[in-house]
Amino acid sequence: MSQKKLFISYSRRDTEYVSTLVEALRKQGFEVWFDKNIRTGTDWDSTIEEELKKADAIVLVLSKTSVESDNVKDEMSFGIGMDKPVIPIKIEECDVPMRLARKQFVDFTTMGHEEGFERLVNDLHIGLKEAETAVPKGTFKPPKQKKANPIKNYIMGGVGAVVLILILVMVLGGEDAEADTTSNAEWQTAINSNTVNSYLNYIYQKGPLDPKYKSAQDSIDVLMEYEGMVIYGDLNSRYFVKNLYTDMNGDLVYEQDDEQIPKKGDIITALTPSQIYNYETMEPMEGLLLEPGVKAKVISVREDDQGNVLAILNFPDN
């Protein structure tokens, strides 16, 4: 019997969680597709539509950001309109869309992620008219949730914060302990925001000697999940500004340097709405623009016959 095909509809903020979910579903014998499978240069809308048509069922991941996503709403409506089984799962507290209010969903927030996953698998088998199967314990282990900074609660207490800092200074060695506490709080702020800008700000403040420096770079890379080409500039104009460049050691260094052509690893920011192209066909990728202020990471650079500087980039969701 051929594998049943699942389409996962989700918000990109939940990519880490969904990637783990996809892996667990594949271990249960499902063929799973989600938009990280889209090859660079393919037409986004047509690929999504094609995969929705091929899917036997749709798993809709409900979170605070996905219920606000127009793309997720479109995918949900398309699936319901094609009369395919749509299985919603709620992975955090959020407002369930009106079209799903009367539809039973698997609430991972109350059932727990392991029991919720077992229920999801069984609901999929029921929706696909297949026999239910036992799900081994521990098949689905979601990514660990980032813990809130324990110092923060004391800070909210006012006087308690002063006492805690004094204790840390005395026990851990005065100024060094205070510096470590500040650094940890700033890193916690960066990961709580989980944006390119929050990690870049951390790099700006701390520099390459900070122990979290490499982690900040890695986190930026995870968020830069898309790939395409832009016109960086021509002989007379620049459409981007360089925010970070890589030095001889491969480290990111903060310096706005607009004169030098960027190289691999540099981080640049769009100054104007910039069309994204398929770097193989040179055709515009319909509906895809880098908006002003959005940062991207350079993969490679070349010049065309007209003197345009072309940069292949990784970039985040606008």
UniProtKB/TrEMBL annotation:
Q: List the keywords (alphabetical).
A: Membrane, Receptor, Transmembrane, Transmembrane helix
The family database entries (InterPro entries) matched by this protein are listed as:
TIR_dom, Toll_tir_struct_dom_sf
Q: Where are the transmembrane segments?
A: 154-174
- Organism's domain of life? Bacteria
Q: Reply yes or no: does the keyword 4Fe-4S apply.
A: no
Ranges where the TIR domain occurs: 2-128
Tell me the SUPFAM superfamilies matching this sequence.
Toll/Interleukin receptor TIR domain
State if Transmembrane is listed as a keyword: yes
- The name this protein goes by in its record: Toll/interleukin-1 receptor domain-containing protein
Q: Which organism is it from?
A: Jejudonia soesokkakensis
